[in-house]
Every structure is written in C-alpha cells, then in structure tokens.
Amino acid sequence: MSLDSRLWGKAAGLGKNARGAHRTHPLICHLLDTAAVAEVVWDELLTSHQRSMVVGALQVPDEEVRALAAFWAGLHDIGKISVPFQLHRSGPKNADGELLAQELGGEQGYGFAADAAQDRQSHEAAAHWWLAGIFEEIGYPSSKRRPQSQLSHAVAQMLGGHGGRYHPAVYSKDYRCPVARHPGLGTSSWEEQRRVHFDEVRRVTGATSVPQGRMTPGAAVVLTGLVTLSDWLASIEVEIRARLMEEGWAGAPEDLDAYWKIAREAALRLVQKTDLLGTGFARPDPVQCAGETSLLASMVGQLTDVVTEHGPGLVVVTSSPSEERTEAALRAAAVLGHAAGARGLFYALPTGSSADSHMAQVHAFAEQALTGPWRSLLLHSSSRLKPAEAAKQWAQAHATGDVSAEPGEEWAPAANSWLNSHHRALLAALGTGTVDELLQAVMPVKFNVMRLFAFSGKVVVVDEAHARGAWGQKLMLRFLEWAAALRIPVVLAAMSADKSVDAMLAAYRRGAGGGKEPMVQPRRLPAWSFVDAHSGGGHLPRQPAQAVRAGTLSIKVLDGAPYDEIQAALAPLVEAGNGRAVVYRSTPAEAIRTSLQLSQDLPGLDVTLVHEQMRNKDRWRRLAACRKTFSPDGGISGPSALVTTPMLEHVRGLRFDLVVSGPAPLADLLARAAHGAGDQPRLVVLRADNKSELDDVALVRRTDIVLGAGRTISMPEEVPLLLDEVYADELVDRLGEAAAHELHQLDNRRTVRERRATGTAGWLQVPGPRELDGDLGLLSRDHPGMEPELLSSVLGEEMVHVVCLYPGSLLENGVLKEKLARDSKRRPKPGQLVPYLIPVPQRLVDGVAGDANSVWRDMAALKTVLRLNMTWEDGTWVRTGEGHRFHVNELGLTVDRLP
C-alpha cells in the first residue's frame, strides 16, 4: 500500500488556499521535519554527557544511536493516524466548512465503527499504545509480564509523553490489539497507513539497527527532551509555511527522499534560531585571593584538583551570606561546568526579589566564565509571563549600573525570541530565578521531564538551599537524587551546616549510587565539601577554609513601641549627619507607613522604600539604585535609611551601619544582620513589632528566649552554636512552668505542620530515579485530590499578579501613556504587562474576581493575572469592591479588607 499524503499533521496558522480551503502539512512531512531537527539537536545541542547516557543505555554505537533518535522523534505523532484526530470537528475545512478529511470516512478502507469518533484517547496516548506492539514486532526487547521494563514499551511510552505527560504502562493484551480498547485507532487503511508511515520514517532516517539495551532514567530524560524540543521546533508555523507541498503531492518514496533533503536544510536553521547553540564554559583561570585560607582561596586551590581526579558532582558551601560566598559558589560552578562540558548555568534563589538582585553578579560571572554566545532570562513567577520582556525591562532598570540596556545587547534575547515562552525559557544558557523552577522538575506537573532535560545540560547553583521549609526540603532531596542520576553538577550554598544540609549530601550520594555511610558537612564556618557524581564518594578539602574577616555582632532587643524605637534608633544618625540604616517591616503596608512617617518626623533623613508589592519595573529600579547607594563604597552622603520587608534579606552587596528588624527566626535575623558594615555590625530587634505571617511562631519564640535582652556573637564561629541553641530541646528547661507549657504547644504545632508538609511532599513528589522500575508513567501520575492549588501551596505561598489599569491605559510617571485592550475584541499582549505586574499573596485578594473581559479570561498566559480597573477618587487611584479596597501610587499597592 502506498503512503496517503492526505493524512494531515499540521493545519493551524497555515492560512488558506485560493479556493478558501485550509492549507495542511502532510503528517509524513511533519514526522520527517521532526526527525531532521532531532539530528541537529543530537549533533549540536546535546552535551557529550547527555549523548553518552543514551549510548550507554541502548548499547549501540554513537552513529547508530543518532539515527535511532531521529527515527523515534519522527514517530512521535504517528497517533494522529486515527479517526478522532483526522476527523475532529476543529480540523482543517474547505471553503464550504466541510472537513477536508471527511472524504476519508467515505472510502471503504477508512471505514470505522460508530464509536470510533467518540474515542477520547489523545494522539499522544495512541502513539504509545500502537508503537509498543510494532517495536516488539521488529525485534525490540519486550516482556508479557513486565512490559514497562523492556525497551519496546519504554520507547513507546517515552514518545507518548511528548505532550508533557507520560501515559500509564500498557500490557501486551492491550497493545497487541489496541483497537479493541480504543476503536478510534481504526482498522484496515488506518492500520496500514500507520505501518507505511512507520516504515518510511525508518527507511528515510536509516535507523535499521535493533537496540538490545534498556531505557535508563537518564536516557529517558534526554530522549524525551530531544523529541519534545524537536517537535516544538518543527511546529513553528512560519517555517512550515515556507516548505508547504504543492497540492497533489503524492508522497512516493522518491518524493520523501527529496523532502528529507529540504527538511534537513531547514533543521539547522531552525535550531540556530533558538539562541541555544555555542555556549560552553571556559577553562577557569587562576584567581588571586586575599588571604590564602579564605573560602574562595581554599576552593580555588583545591576544587579543580578534586574534580579532575573524580569528575563533576556536588559542592556544598556553608558560610554566612555575603558576596564572597556567592563568588565562591560561582567559582565552583565554573570549575564543574568546564569539567562536565556543560552549556550553561541556572542560579536559583528563594524569592523573585533575591533573583532580581543577583542577576547583575551572575552576569558578571557569565562574562568571564561562559564562551560563545549566551542568552539570559529572568525566571520567577512575575517574569514567567514573557521571560525575554522581563530580562529586557530588568536591563533597562539597571541601565545606569554595570549592565547595559542598549538595544542589541548580546545577552538579552529579543521579545520575539523563540525562548520567550513559559516552557522553553529554562533552556536558555543562563537563567537566574527561584528554586521553584527546580522543585517543579520533581513534581507531577506538565513538562516536568523537560525541566530535568534543561538542567541536565547545565550547572545548577542553589543559594540559601535551606530556606524553603519542610515541603521545599523534601522536594529538594528528590531533585538532588535526580541531579546525581543525571550527573548534573550542583553547587549548594547555605548559611550553616545542620541535619538538612547533611540530608542533601546524602540525597546526592544516593542518586549517584554511593554508599550508605553518612557524610557530615563540617559544622565550623566557613566550610565546603564535595560529592562526585560518578560514585557518590564524599571528599573534604585537604586544607579547610578559615574565616578571614572575623567580627562581633551586637544584638539589642528592645521592648518599646515599634515606631518609637525605630525613630529613636535612627535619630543619632541624623544628629551625626551621616550613617546608613536598614529597617525591616513585616508587610508592604507597614513599610509604606514607616517610610512616610520617618520622612515627616526626621526631615534630615534620606528615606528610601523598596518592597515586593511594587510594579516589577519600579522594584527593579529601586533595587538597582540601592545597590549603588548602599554598596560598601557607595557615594551617599548624609544620614539615610532603607525601609523594606523580608524580601531584602537575600539581597547581596548592601552595607549598613545599623540593621533594625521586627521579631523573626534566628536564621532570618542573621541573614539580615549580614548587611551590617565593618567588624562590629549592629542589629536591633523590636520585640513588640508584628511578626510576618509566614514566620514559624515557635521559632520566633525560641529566638526571643535565646536572645533575651540582647547578645554579642563572635562571627562566624558562634553562629552554628547559637542556631543549635535555638533548636535545642533543653531550651524548655530554662523556662518557668507556664512559659515551658506554651513553648511545648508551639513546638508540637510546628512538628505537626512539618510532618504534614513532609508527608504531603512525599506523596506528591515523583519517584526517585531508582524507584521507577522502567515505568515512566510514574513521573506523570495523577492522584485524586491533586489540584493546582495543592501544587502551588507546596511551592510556597500562592501568588497572584495584579495589573492596575487607569481608564484603559497603563500609568507611566503619572501620565496615562500606553493603551491596553479594555473591550471584548482586542487581545492584550502579555509581554506588554510584564513591567507593570505587582505580585500579591493570594490570601490578600481571596474572593476578588477582577475586571477581566472575555478575551482576557480566554488567554492562558493571563490566567494568573488579576486585572483591576482603577478610578480616581479624592486625589488617588483606588478600586473598591468584593470586600476589598485597593490603593496604588508610586509607593506601591496596598490592599485593605473592608468590614
């Protein structure tokens, strides 16, 4: 039977012909397009390590694996040869509105059962079911009892997952006669055409070998990424339109051979347009460090030798938060990246604000460490809408700093870049974002394996690795298992060593197949250790790092009214005519009120405000200004104060003579105190101030007990001791009966919350690489009760992004400047909104429906954006309704619940 080129694979966005009928791209052409792109991805984009994982698993020579990868990629959409897909009511139509494929149903060979068109099996699942049997027929290893453990089923399941989710394992009684369960697959000509397409793709790609290996977790991740990425690239509509076949194209073997040449020529161009090629790590140059025993010097002098001997792996750095620690982590990433042949880096931080503030230092690192062209994206919740626009706006906000925002800047992707998309953004060579991007790789969310694929070619740095709570800790351990199994180089940076850091070391060792004997991170500060990904062996430096700059942190705890104490603490700066202070408030609303009060009550004080509920562009600009104003060598003169929220505690490069904070867990207070200048930093804690709603009450209470009226701490040697004291069970023994009972209750509640969170995360996370037992469907399993809200809660506090509109426009410097669609016909451009988004906790806006029109609501990119139409009342912009009152000005957004 000859190939039927009427079977279509692509139609959306291809336009119409002169007769008004939809143009279509034959399925065989799309299959060959994808196969051709897969060849280029294999040659040009995969790292040598990624290729070696596949070659080692399949047990065939490298050149044959390349052909197999192209062949398999070309089969990904073979499930489209089915009744529900070809005759779907939304399929391509002629000028009269009739389905183009309707004529197939009228032909004898394409007849189908009455229930075939109602078969709800997706084309991805259809490919999985059908291919399992055909791979078995041509000799791929198979098993009746355990199909998931054999290559025939594993390849089929992998290809069925190209839509972002794998499908459950199929047993031989089903895949040997799939139409019995899914009549939509069709018989007769439907079956014959699937076989003809299969044979032609195999012939054209030259994949004649029959592998006898197995599908390891590493090979599955790489092949899934290769197939999915190739499909994405081969589906770019403007490129398909450039190679559409003339009507009447037959698809004979000689036609396919000719088209294969066209597809191959287009494939390299497609991959080159992604901005993904050519990035690598340079050989690290020797670095001159101040102090031969400093953290950086210790790592520079020894890590290269350890990695040369044992290969890449995990580096754990424990030290107080500082730019030196960040530099040490990046230096370790450069050593690991060069040794692994990695093609980029992802730098993960606890919050979006901390990612914003680190991007400049990460860029400075990339200029020295990365070779070839590289593209950089900012990746966190409020930049995910359009990552390239976010990176561009971030650069413009920093235009007066070290990072240029001139058009055409080499690192900045264009707004229309192929990377400027939610699922593709992680593929960019350089990413600075939040740890949530890592954790979603080990949660059963759509395209989670594409995340693992993106990270498998990079170095991953996790700053403040301990700062995610019980849920985040559990998921981080699972990510580290996968990272080790995929041989992903990882650098973890934490304030101090504790059981959670030891657990991270153990997780990476477990994923690498290391021994069960415990490895403990040195408790003294600073310190670093290494686990190689090849054997899971642990290694400590021959010459431990020493603290070069010792200091004494003075902590004073005050009991007075919070604002009065703040004013009293800052008054000496005003009297002296110089000095810099930072004041932490628990919420944006309190920060705004405090800044306004200080400006009024201390007229000689230069007050700056920055918090998370500002528009993205305003927050970026203010953070950029803070890095210049409050840097160690900042050129500020006169007394000044920065009023902020806990968002600032992970920001680096700021120095203050005085740090003022409300009550918080000790680890957070120490992170804020790290902003202190000189060798005698000062921290004032306001006991009577409000606590953050996100802080654990038991840890805040324990911190308060340990600090008492104040403490003096030798830095850094006493930091681990003080942290141990806060967590110690014996702390209760120092209290009276009533206070001990209260603390016991708080501790019990914390324990229950942590165990519940750990249990939920353990239930939610995907299996580890050694637990899959060949069944990729476990990576996409869907439990009852697994709602999007649960996924969000595991990742941290659920956020909503608010955009405020002023009579149909966006406000710029007090002027209604940029028009935005407000009617039901015009489609807003999501990228236009990125600079104006305001992140707000979901709990503050519960019940608010917003003012989205039907067009807005139907756009998937805007589903997490709350649109508010503001009105001018009494000299200010407000929106009142649904039990809330929103007020916005140049200081940010505040939300009040109405009585």
TrEMBL record:
UniProt-listed SUPFAM superfamilies:
P-loop containing nucleoside triphosphate hydrolases
Keyword annotations: Antiviral defense, Hydrolase, Metal-binding
Matching InterPro entries, A to Z? CRISPR-assoc_Cas3_HD, CRISPR-assoc_Cas3_HD_sf, P-loop_NTPase
**Lineage: superkingdom:** Bacteria
Question: Domain named HD Cas3-type: which ranges?
Answer: 20-233
Q: Which Pfam families match?
A: Cas3_HD
Q: What are the coiled-coil residue ranges?
A: none
> PROSITE patterns in the record, alphabetically?
HD_CAS3 (PS51643)
What family does the database annotate? In the N-terminal section; belongs to the CRISPR-associated nuclease Cas3-HD family. In the central section; belongs to the CRISPR-associated helicase Cas3 family.
Q: What name goes with this protein?
A: HD Cas3-type domain-containing protein
